[in-house]
Amino acid sequence: MNKSRIEKYLLEKTNKLVFITLDDIILKKIEGININKNIEVPVFSSVLIDMANSKKEGISTIDILSAMLFIQGIDPYFKYSKEYKAIITKLSSNPLDLASSLAGDAYEKSNLIESLIFARGYLSMFEPEMNLYFNYALLCKEISEQALEDSKKVDFKLESEDCFNALVKLYPEFSKPYYYLAYFALQHGDLSTSKNCFEKAIELGLDDSLENDSKDNLVKINTIEKISLSSELIESEKYDEALAILEEIVDEDTSSYEAYFYLGYINRLKGEYESAIDYFEFAYKLDTSQPQLINEMALCFAFLGDLEQALELLEYAFELDSESIEILCNISMVYYNLENIEKAKYYINLAENIDPHDDIVQECIKLIYKA
After folding, report:
1. 3-state secondary structure 87-126
2. First vs last Cα of the chain: how many Å apart?
């Protein structure tokens, strides 16, 4: 395992260790190993404290092996790494089980960093084992999600993503790394890679929960892609083509605010104001905080002649976004049509203060101040 961006967060854990010389018992156990016998080996300071308090008779082999894994997890290039690997290999019947057990115990105590260090200690010395490597990647992800500092959050997230990428290369038939890489790609806005990873994870086999979540995300990705295409078609004034795609979306995914909004918008442009209002109301149930939606709905009521309802909606839209020139112009024009010129002037003046050079603002001013 190479040096990585997360080591700076692990170094403080070295204060849990002290270094001692090999005693005769350990020296006898490692006879036959071609290493420098004068090296120092680590032990957790808590072990020495327990000995001093008569809670422990001596330092066991496991005490030393676990501390070796620990320092190796903190610094894979520690000066005695080669010797420690030889000692662990000689004295432990199964270094993987030892590291996994130590990592698991630390995790059970909610000590995520120490759990990660034990796993990293093994991975830095031995060939990466699939499950331990995967759990290490998950630990990095979990630490990232819990981190309060932005830099720490980013560093552990990148470490996690690097590990999942390494896992799919080492174990291409292992499904779960693809699942997590799909989420990383989604966060990066790479819909194509995310889609491919979710599909690969499903193909290789996931448990029911992860498979259902993957399928839900594939529907969402499909929706996002179709929304993007619909937006392009609307800009090109190909409304019927956009409508067909948007109707497909709401048949498959009833949670898409954008689909309902665009359906309402197209119907409004086509003069189908009542249908537009229906779609806007569906969108509003999904998101009540969008001033542009409220503005569009108000326009429909205005075109239907219900100026009081239009005004109520526009004033709510103004509460949500008091800097929108479009909303201010629409309010002023509704007041103008209600023959409340003072209010019309008030709102158009607000718009002019924001952008005195806006063409629509100037047209509204000419009309209102003529009255």
Report:
1. HHHHHCCCHHHHHHHHHHHHHHCCCHHHHHHHHHHHHHHC
2. 78
Distance separating alpha carbons of residues 235 and 351, to the nearest angstrom:
26
**pLDDT the model gives residue 25:** 61
pTM, rounded to two decimals: 0.81
How far is 58 from 47, CA to CA, in rounded Å?
Answer: 8
Asked if 297 contacts 306 with a C-beta cutoff of 8 angstroms, the reply is no
CB 72 within 8 A of CB 81: yes
Show the tokens assigned to 138.
């998950």
From the number of C-beta atoms within 10 Å of its C-beta (0-12, 13-18, 19+), residue 85 rates as middle
Segments of the chain with pLDDT less than 50: none
Q: Which amino acid is at 201?
A: A
Strands 40-44 and 17-21: antiparallel
Query: What CA–CA distance (Å, rounded) separates 111 from 118?
Result: 11
Q: What is the 3-state secondary structure (H, E, C) of 276-321?
A: HHHHHHHHHHHCCCCHHHHHHHHHHHHHCCCHHHHHHHHHHHHHHC
Contact 330, 350 (CB under 8 A): no
Give the bridge partners for 20, in sequence order: 41
What is the pLDDT at residue 58?
Answer: 72
Full set of structural domains in the chain with CATH: 1-126 (no CATH), 130-206 (1.25.40.10)
User: Can you list the positions of beta strands (E) in the chain?
Assistant: 17-21, 40-44
Contacts of 311 (CB under 8 A, 6+ apart): 298, 331, 334, 335, 338
